[in-house]
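Entry for the shared binder. Reason: the reviewer on the internal report wants the predicted structure included alongside the sequence.
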Amino acid sequence: MDQHTSLTATCHCGAISITLKSAPAEITHCNCSLCRRYGVLWAYYPIAEVVVEARQPTDTYAWNGKNVDFHRCGTCGCITHWLPRKPTRTSMGINARLIEPGTLKSAEINYKDAAGTGLFF
C-alpha cells in the first residue's frame, strides 16, 4: 500500500491499526440496536484493500451469530471493524470514528434506518 496516499485508523491505545488506501467518500450512520449502542460510523472498503495489524488478538462478537464478526480491541475496548462470515462477501466495515476527524470533513454521511424501514433517509 502506498504510504503517501494511505491513512491509518487506530484504536485509542494504538494496539490495533487499520491502513486504508484512501479516506472514505461516504460513511454510514446506522441506527440498528447494535450500531447505536456502539456509537460507530461505518466506512466500507474491499477486504483486499485493508490492512489490519493487531499487537494482540481482537475480541469478537457476532450478533445472532450469523452475518458478521464485530472486532474490538481487548485493551481499550474500541470497536475497530467488522468482517463478514461468508467468504463470498468482499467488503468489510471500518469504524470511521477511529479516523482523524479532519479527514472525514468531506465525507458524505448516509443515514440508514436499520431499526425501522431498512432504508436510507
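Summary line for the report: Residues 33-38 form the longest helix (6 residues).
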